[in-house]
């Protein structure tokens, strides 16, 4: 993940898109099963079709750079993924990819993540606790940003923490009531079901981490979303006890 070799960054993004497409295809039936309980049972098929087309479009690019790959993938998802997922996953990616104009480094990766989250929230009019992909994405983005900017961790370790935060966010969708999307029509009957959009978001992040580790010729760090530091709002308060920040409860983000 370095801006020194934009061509290498572009190839890494293409590899990530291909890995995501393969993972979503493998998980197609599971995503369909999740969606059949609270939605239209089409999330698995729509996402698999869209990411397969996106991978093909990315492979067809000549000398790709990260921004171009991102926008190409986003536009393809918008056109190939049905329902709300197309604009949410694809449209948000088109906007966020502008942050990768100078390649991928820690700073641009954080900017990309924040922009992506903002666009997903705006397009879906969803917030934390609505039982949507935002419940996985928000803790992931916040954890990644803090790991980079506050804890000054290497990007790969920061991404690993973000994946763990997303995993916790997916689990968080199970005991809460859906307030957005078709699942919201079920009211309290949506409680007890894992959100398929949050789940596919986790799969995407897991593949990004795997590809990043492979490109860096490194092992995926064995970490969790806890952080060694928290912002000290009571600086100078001698009675304040040290605390450990954690992303285990997205409602606290």
TrEMBL record:
- Transmembrane portions of the chain: none
UniProt keywords (A-Z) are: Kinase, Transferase
Region annotated Disordered, chain positions: 219-253
Q: Which domain of life is it from?
A: Archaea
Q: Domain DhaL spans what residues?
A: 11-210
In its UniProt record, which GO terms are filed under biological process? glycerol catabolic process
What does the entry list under GO cellular component? cytosol
Gene Ontology MF annotations = glycerone kinase activity
Q: Where is the composition biased (Acidic residues)?
A: 232-242
Name the SUPFAM superfamilies for this protein. DhaL-like
Q: Where is the composition biased (Low complexity)?
A: 243-253
The name this protein goes by in its record = Dihydroxyacetone kinase, L subunit
The lineage is: Archaea, Methanobacteriati, Methanobacteriota, Stenosarchaea group, Halobacteria
